[in-house]
Design a protein that fits this description.
globular; 9 strands; Rossmann fold; two-stranded antiparallel sheet; 14% strand
Length: 314
């Protein structure tokens, strides 16, 4: 069964009505879902910077629709300490840098011939609306039905229109048979695909991460690419006490350390190489140097263990 550009699928595969459940903000008001609102607020602030790494005019609309985020800043002038602010400065700029690097990676994959893009755990990602896609490129967003419904309700409320005629939302849990839901929605495993898992793996158990990427490998034709964010190991007590974590908890109610999965992390790059992929991993600071702006290393750094991994199936 195929779904249209503004439909959603529930885990049973039944079309849902966009913007009905969850549009009041409760669908993203707690737990991991609220971290998507945190990232949206960071993108909103970044959008108004004169030296913005990425611009997302939709981000502030998502934040404004969530009562739990009513007092969060949406503009640099709302952050008096600027980039010295551990939450909206340093962590916010990290999210902006990540957005820019992964935007560029996806667009590069499309330039090289991929005509399918799959966003795993899409959350409040607005790439289907703010990036320029070829007219024959299909973009699939996978997330829980209530998250996608909230997102669609906000976008419909501002009469937003995607930049691709082939945006497909697939409402399903990545811990279920999401591959079947994706193929039912029109995805073609025989075509090169650009996959993205942004801000997802940190919250998944190691076994779920392995299963996720085994499925990605199975569904990927030669020429496919994969980009994802990972964190190496368990951080020290000094890092866990860093103001980035404490300020996020105290000022937004989001305890990132409690949300991060404590399981040992699998060696996903090695697993991918075993399936014939080539992989490269990077620190965020490499991209700070590349773009000329972004966070730099500091003592007991919450970003030091973060890696952005790019993989290609030749």
């Amino acid at each position: 069964m195929s779904v249209g550009a503004t439909e959603t699928l529930d885990p049973a595969g039944t079309p849902g009505t966009p913007g009905t459940p969850g549009t009041d903000g409760h669908a993203v008001a707690e737990g991991v879902a609220l971290t998507a609102v945190l990232v949206a607020a960071a993108r909103a602030i970044e959008t108004h910077r004169p030296d913005a790494l990425a611009r997302d005019p939709y981000a502030e609309h998502f934040v404004r629709a969530v009562p739990a985020a009513a007092d969060w800043p949406l503009h640099p002038q709302d952050v008096p300490a600027g980039e010295a602010d551990p939450l909206w400065g340093r962590l916010g700029r990290y999210f902006a840098l990540r957005t820019r690097a992964l935007d560029d990676q996806l667009l590069r994959a499309v330039q090289l011939g991929a005509r399918q893009v799959v966003l795993l755990g899409a959350g409040l990602d607005a790439r289907a609306y703010r990036l320029d896609w070829p007219s024959d490129c299909a973009l699939y967003e996978i997330d829980r039905p209530e998250v996608l419904a909230f997102k669609q309700g906000v976008l419909d409320g501002i009469e937003a229109r995607p930049t691709t005629p082939h945006r497909v939302t697939v409402g399903t849990d990545l811990r279920t048979d999401w591959a079947q839901a994706l193929t039912d929605a029109g995805f073609r495993p025989d075509r090169p695909t650009a996959w993205l898992a942004e801000g997802l793996l940190l919250y998944l158990p190691g076994t779920a991460e392995r299963e996720l990427f085994a499925t990605v490998a199975r569904l990927s034709a030669p020429g496919s690419t994969l980009a994802y964010e990972a964190k190496l190991g368990i951080e020290s007590a000094a890092v866990r006490a860093n103001p980035v974590y404490t300020a996020t908890r105290d000022r937004t109610g989001i305890d990132l350390l409690a949300l991060f999965d404590a399981d040992p992390r699998p060696d996903t790059p090695a697993d991918l190489r075993a399936h014939g992929w080539s992989t490269t991993d990077h620190t965020p600071f490499e991209f700070t140097r590349h773009y000329g702006r972004g966070p730099l290393p500091e003592p007991d750094d919450t970003l030091a263990a973060n890696r952005w991994v790019f993989a290609v199936r030749p």
